Amino acid sequence: MSGYSSEEDEDLQTIPKKSEVYLGYVDVAFNKTEDEPTVEDTFVGGQPIWLHHGSPPSADLISCKSCTNPMSLIVQAFSPLEDSLYDRIIYVFGCKNDQCNRKKGSVRAIRAVCKDPKKMEEAQNEQDEEIKAQLQDKLKLDNARNFLFDGNKQDSNPFGASTDSSNPFGGSSANPFGVPAAASNPFASSAPAPTKTEEPAKPSFASIAKQSAPAPKPKTKSTITKKLPEYPGYFLYVDQEKFNKKPAQKQPNLKIDDSALDLEDESNSASGSGSGSAGLSAESQAVSASLQDSTFQHFSEVISYNPHQVLRYEINGKPLLATSSDEIAKVVSERLIPRPGFNPSSERRFELQVMPKLIMDFEDEVNVQGGIEWVTIIVYTDKEDFTPELDDNHVGYVEEWCGVQWEEPITTKTRR
Ligand SMILES: [Zn+2]
């Protein structure tokens, strides 16, 4: 419990030069394109797509625990694990009922897997083929390079995987997932486990598994459950987080008083409540919840580099807390995330986080009475990715841990 050291504190409070986080950005709206989302897409809003059209989750899994009504899909993230051959999706659902804001169980995270042995075998074969093809391509290119440039043109890296966007290995920064064959759907390559782009010879298993699993035809979209109430749907595109460019203008999405950032100084961030809220008096907690909350400042600062992010994905990574003064901050900071009940010997790890810009995208399209009041939704999933039960279609669902940081009064005031 006290293992949350100041070292990590620092880690949370500084802007790293490099990030392993993948960010999701809103792209084309469902109603502005002929394309329908498939299981291999990552998207927000709309109706969920199940891994098998005949295998929706049980109704109670996607019902609000507060009002028991069916919830709405917030995010569906196609996120097969690296080194695995099966399909995997994280769903985040939320209740649209105003009265359920801040209620326990009004936002829930569901993990689905599909371990179809046939598909997995196909994935294995395609993976082997892919590796073979990549090796061959690499050899060819090496030879060509050696021949044309006498080996000294680019750099000493034999794979030449520098920043050359024409690199056939897909190892360029333009395509962090190495899924060049994503065909006409640019969003198919969404939110998998990050791959080491500098190692083109060792492609991400996650990306290969993804390529090999054919998406069900849109027509077979699940009609098993009744249509859920929905938010407007948008495809997401995913890119690695970068901190190099910072827009000069005030961020349109996070309506934070600029003076909040000006208040920050060294002593403030050092004494900030990144971890210590548990030991603080009620009074100092109240202070930390104010604009001087260095956690909130850090949250805003990180977002300001990529202000349109609606999703952060970093398996085994760290969530970005919006405040240090609530229960979720305590649970996350002190690593009190509950073990999965369906796999009690395991633990949970951070996987993804929904960011507040999404609320704007949802609210742009519909008049959300009363409004959405979460700031961020943090999802932790079972480290072992265990799924106790698979149905006849090899699909299984479990509920994962989901921590919601709600708007504090101060943010409510500045947001509206
Ligand atoms: Zn509800």
TrEMBL record:
Residue ranges for the region (Disordered) are: 150-225
- Composition-biased stretches, type Low complexity, lie in 180-194
- Signal sequence span is none
InterPro entries in UniProt: PDCD2_C (IPR007320)
Pfam family, any one: PDCD2_C
One BP annotation, GO? maturation of SSU-rRNA
- Which positions fall inside the Programmed cell death protein 2 C-terminal domain? 293-406
One of the record's GO cellular component terms:
cytoplasm
Compositionally biased intervals (Polar residues): 154-175
Which PANTHER family does this UniProt record tie to the protein?
A: 20S RRNA ACCUMULATION PROTEIN 4
Q: What is the protein named?
A: Programmed cell death protein 2 C-terminal domain-containing protein
